[in-house]
Each structure stands twice: as C-alpha cells, then as structure tokens.
C-alpha cells in the first residue's frame, strides 16, 4: 500500500541535520544529471548548505553526537540476541567517521575558497540572479563538456565527505532507534509523550487526503491532520504509523 512519509525534528539541532541531509541529497541527485538546469539546483543547494555551516558550529556538535551514539552501541556488546558482527561493523564505521570528522578542516572551507564558487555565490541570493547576463562565468561553465562539469561537481561533493558520512551515520542510527507502530488520530488529532526523543517519523495513506502539522519538543508532541483540499472533511478516525526516535 502506498504511503506518504513525513519526519519532524523535536529539537533545533536535528532540524539542522535534516536540512543538511536534504541539501546534500539535492546536490547528489543534480550532480548525476546532464541537464544544466539541474546543475543550477546543485549550486543553489550548495550555497544554502554553506550558509548553514557559517551559522552553526556543526563539526563539534556532530562529533559529540556521534560519540554518544557510539557509547550507546557499545552497551550492546556481548548481549545475547544481538548480531555482534553487524554491531562491530557499525562501531568501526562510527569510529572511522568520527576520526575523519575531527581531523577535517573547517567544514566547507575548501568550497568557500574556490574561486569559481565564490565568484557566483552572491548572485544566487538575488531572485533570478543566475541569468547569463548576471553570471557570464556560470553561463560559460554550464556549456563546458559534460565530463568536465561532472568532474567539478564530484570534486565539490567530495569536499563534504567527512560531514556527509558522519551525518548519515547519526541519522541512520537515530531513525533505526524507533520502530513504526500503528496509531489512530481521532477527529484529526493525536498527542503523545516523547521523553528524550529527537525525531518523529510518520507514515499515512494518501487516500485520507490530509497532511500532518506537528508541534512539540522533547517532552510532548501533538499532530493535527489538515485536509489538503480546502473545505474537505476529515475522517473520524485516521490510521497511521508513528516512530518516536
């Protein structure tokens, strides 16, 4: 059965992590295509990502969070019923990601220092500012051979590898820490406790014609399902699945 999936962070740090993951996915997807319009999406996502990195001390916080996860996982060593080989493999991955993240330069610094990127970044903050008359340098790059462009895109993405690997591991572990459980919203409303949780994951059948508006923090959260079509009615009971991670 088809389901719509939603995620909602329960603190500001996870909100930033999810935004970074979202931007990295855009960049990765756009870098694999030959369409020059997709390449402009790559640059816009990249500059949004650098803006976030300029505002927060991500490297330190992410390293701390990865180490906390590693300590939690070590508590499962030598416990019956736990796949020890898979656990050791995950611990090794975390050790490596943590080490590389700590050893890395300031996140995104090589991208900030790139002459081509720094030359076009400011214009992307202007509506329509990436037109050829605004950015002839970009227009020239967009018409270079595809192999040349893909090499550049791959190089720029690789300069975020340490952050990407650590972020993906932390989000993977966090998502897997909670299992999807069936729930029922009555009159489009559901609330529950979420002690020490970081993330909500939700699945709902699109046939209900609603989307969730979620509010909350670490202690408690509420979900109100809103009709997508103006004036539409809401089912008395809405079945969905929820994971508190």
TrEMBL record:
* Protein origin, superkingdom: Bacteria
* UniProt record, GO biological process: division septum assembly; FtsZ-dependent cytokinesis
Q: Which InterPro entries match?
A: ZapD (IPR009777), ZapD_C (IPR027462), ZapD_sf (IPR036268)
Gene Ontology cellular component?
Answer: cell division site; cytoplasm
Which of UniProt's keywords are assigned here? Answer: Cell cycle, Cell division, Cytoplasm, Septation
Subcellular location, record wording = Cytoplasm
- Quaternary state and partners of this protein? Interacts with FtsZ.
Q: What does this protein do?
A: Cell division factor that enhances FtsZ-ring assembly. Directly interacts with FtsZ and promotes bundling of FtsZ protofilaments, with a reduction in FtsZ GTPase activity.
Matching entries from NCBIfam families are given as: PRK05287.1-3, PRK05287.1-4
The Swiss-Prot or TrEMBL record describes its family as follows: Belongs to the ZapD family.
Q: What is this protein called?
A: Cell division protein ZapD
Record organism = Photobacterium profundum 3TCK
Q: Which gene name belongs to this protein?
A: zapD
């Amino acid at each position: 059965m088809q389901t719509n999936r939603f995620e909602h962070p329960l603190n500001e740090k996870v909100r930033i992590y999810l935004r970074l993951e979202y931007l990295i996915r855009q960049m990765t997807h756009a870098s694999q295509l030959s369409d020059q319009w997709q390449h402009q999406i790559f640059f816009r996502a990249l500059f949004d990502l650098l803006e976030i990195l300029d505002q927060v001390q991500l490297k330190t916080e992410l390293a701390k969070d990865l180490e906390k996860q590693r300590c939690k996982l070590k508590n499962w060593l030598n416990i019956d019923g736990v796949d020890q080989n898979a656990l050791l493999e995950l611990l090794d991955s975390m050790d490596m990601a943590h080490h590389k993240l700590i050893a890395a330069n300031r996140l995104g610094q090589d991208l900030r220092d790139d002459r081509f990127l720094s030359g076009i970044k400011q214009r992307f903050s202007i509506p329509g500012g990436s037109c050829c008359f605004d950015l002839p340098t970009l227009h020239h790059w967009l018409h270079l051979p595809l192999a040349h462009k893909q090499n550049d895109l791959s190089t720029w993405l690789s300069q975020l590898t340490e952050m990407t690997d650590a972020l993906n591991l932390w989000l993977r572990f966090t998502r897997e820490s909670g299992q999807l459980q069936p729930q029922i919203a009555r009159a489009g409303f559901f609330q529950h406790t979420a002690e020490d949780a970081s993330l909500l994951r939700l699945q709902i059948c699109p046939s209900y014609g609603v989307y969730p508006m979620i509010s909350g923090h670490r202690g408690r959260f509420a979900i109100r399902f809103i009709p997508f079509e103006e004036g539409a009615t809401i089912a008395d009971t809405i079945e969905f699945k929820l994971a508190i991670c």
